[in-house]
Specification:
Structural class: alpha/beta
Largest sheet: 7 strands, mixed
Helix content: 25-40%
Strand order of the largest sheet: 6-5-4-3-2-1-18
Radius of gyration: 22 Å
Distance between the termini: 10 Å
C-alpha cells in the first residue's frame, strides 16, 4: 500500500512551552509532502524526524495567527539557502497574502524559486488542490479570524487484474492496462470475458481531516464523516468550556463528540493550551466519548 501518513511537528497552541511546539504537520501522501500550518520550530522538528523540506511542494495555512505562520519566514529563507528552484505553493486565507508579501520583500529578495499564493475562501467547502493521487478540500471553521481546515482524500487506483486470468486466457502484458481501465477480453474463439471477471477492486481511498483552530461546530461532522483519521483541536478540558467558547476553541470532549457523530475511524487531539501540564486528562475525557482517540505528540508519525 502506498504511503499516507501524518507527521506531527508541533501540537501546542499560541504560547510555546518546553513541552510542545506550535501546531504544524507534514502530511506525506505517496512521497509528496504537504506542510499543514507552519509554527515556530517546524524546521527543527523536520530535521529531528528526518523529513526533507525540499519535498514540500505545498504549504497549507489554516489562518493568520502567529502560532500557525511564524515559521514561514525561516522556512522560505532556508529553502533559498539550499538552492531550491521548484515552485512553492502556499494556500491560505486572503489575509495571509500581506504577511507573505512582507516576508518576500524583506528577507527573500533574489530567491531562486517562485512562491505562489493561492487564496482560500474560508466560508466554503471546495477543492483547493488536486493531482493524480489526492484531492484536498477546504473545511470552513469557526475562529476569531477567517480559518480553514483541510480534508485530504486519496484517489482510488485502477482495479487489480487477477493473475490466474492472465494465465488462463493467455492475455498479453500489453493489454493489462487496458483491462484495468475497463476493457473486456475476447478469446480466440470469440468468447467475451468481462472486465469484472478479470479484475478485483482497488483498495478504498484513504482520508484525513485537519481541523485546527475552531469553536465547537456540530456541522463539521457532516463534512468529515467517515474519514479514516480526524485531527481536531482540543485546546481545553471540559472544565474550561466557557474559556473555549470565548476564544473560539474546543474542548477535548467536544472534539470527541465530532468524531463520534461523524463516525470517523480514529481521532487525534492536539493544539493543547500552555496551561495544560499533562494531556492525560484531555485524552481520558475524549476517550469517554470516542474510545479510539490518541493524543498528538511531537515526533509522532501516524500511518493511515
Amino acid at each position: 500500500m502506498e504511503i499516507f501518513e501524518v507527521n506531527i511537528l508541533g501540537c501546542g497552541s499560541a504560547k510555546p512551552t518546553t513541552r510542545h511546539q506550535p501546531t504544524s504537520q507534514i502530511v506525506n501522501i505517496r512521497g509528496k509532502y504537504f506542510l499543514t500550518d507552519c509554527g515556530e520550530a517546524a524546521q527543527i522538528q523536520m530535521q529531528r524526524m528526518g523529513l526533507n523540506m525540499a519535498r514540500i511542494g505545498h504549504v497549507l495555512i489554516s489562518h493568520n495567527h502567529g502560532d500557525h505562520v511564524f515559521g514561514l519566514p525561516g522556512l522560505i529563507s532556508t529553502m533559498a539557502l539550499l538552492g531550491r528552484t521548484a515552485e512553492l505553493h502556499i494556500h491560505g486565507p486572503q489575509q495571509l497574502d500581506r504577511f507573505l508579501q512582507a516576508i518576500l520583500d524583506t528577507y527573500c529578495e533574489g530567491i531562486t524559486f517562485k512562491v505562489l499564493f493561492h487564496p482560500i475562501d474560508t466560508r466554503g467547502h471546495y477543492i483547493i488542490y488536486e493531482d493524480r493521487s489526492v484531492t484536498i478540500w477546504s473545511i470552513p471553521l469557526q475562529h476569531r479570524l477567517p480559518c480553514s481546515g483541510f480534508l485530504f482524500r486519496e484517489k482510488e487506483g485502477l482495479p487489480h487484474i487477477r493473475r490466474e486470468m492472465i494465465d488462463a486466457f493467455n492475455i498479453p502484458i500489453c493489454q493489462i492496462n487496458n483491462i484495468k481501465a475497463g476493457a473486456s477480453w475476447q478469446t480466440e474463439d470469440g468468447t467475451i470475458i468481462p472486465h469484472e471477471r478479470l479484475t478485483y477492486p482497488a483498495e478504498k481511498g484513504r482520508s484525513y481531516a485537519y481541523c485546527s483552530d475552531t469553536a465547537y461546530t456540530p456541522a463539521l461532522a457532516d463534512i468529515v464523516r467517515g474519514v479514516d483519521l480526524l485531527f481536531h483541536e482540543a485546546t481545553f478540558p471540559m472544565a474550561f468550556e466557557q474559556r473555549a467558547r470565548q476564544t473560539f476553541h474546543s474542548t477535548s470532549a467536544q472534539a470527541a463528540t465530532i468524531a463520534r457523530d461523524a463516525n470517523v475511524g480514529k481521532l487525534c487531539i492536539g493544539h493543547y493550551s500552555a496551561m495544560i501540564d499533562d494531556e492525560t486528562s484531555l485524552l481520558e475525557e475524549a476517550r469517554s466519548i470516542f474510545p479510539n482517540t490518541m493524543a498528538a505528540k511531537e515526533g509522532m508519525c501516524i500511518k493511515i
